[in-house]
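Q: How would the structure tokens look for this protein?
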Amino acid sequence: MKTLKHLFDRNLEWANTIKEEDPAFFAELSKQQAPEYLWIGCSDSRVPANQIVNLPPGEVFVHRNIANVVVHTDLNCLSVIQFAVDVLKVKHIIVCGHYGCGGIRAAMEDQEHGLIDNWLRHIKDVIRFNAGRFEGRDHEEKLDLLCELNVREQVTNVCNTTIVQNAWKRGRELSVHGWIYDIQNGILKDLDACVTCSDETPVQ
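A: Here is the predicted structure in token form.
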């Protein structure tokens, strides 16, 4: 039976390193979870939420899926948002996409990929909503643009959930942000897609 012993060895090394720096770290961490941020990101292995913003365990509540999509029928994603907003009382929801996203690239291709095509329909809708903005661009420019437009669309979808709308009606301090990450240089970019209350017009 393969037990992936090398990963357990790496875990032990990591835990020991942290305990050397802060002997009480895990004892304190285990007592509570009080992050200020919910990160909705892509499942891509090159985009780890905590490392990108250089925050330790316990600081970021995370939901990830293919191409960081927020769908109003996805009970998994909605449950994460509800728990983050109503139980953890996060102050910020960050939708973070990334350039070079495989899900975005697949959505642009005119070929079948199997089951995931049903998921990618949501991204194809973003293409349809913004058809005119892709005219006159080469393929890579279209890909980068779609990565950005998809983030903005998902910010709007987060804002339109009953969870976020009700939080704003109760006067909760809650902001929704749209960011994108560049895998080639490790830098985050703010897409100026921040919405802070239900009175503001969701980004387009």
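The two ends are 51 Å apart (CA to CA).

The chain is about 45% helix and 15% strand.

Upvote if useful.
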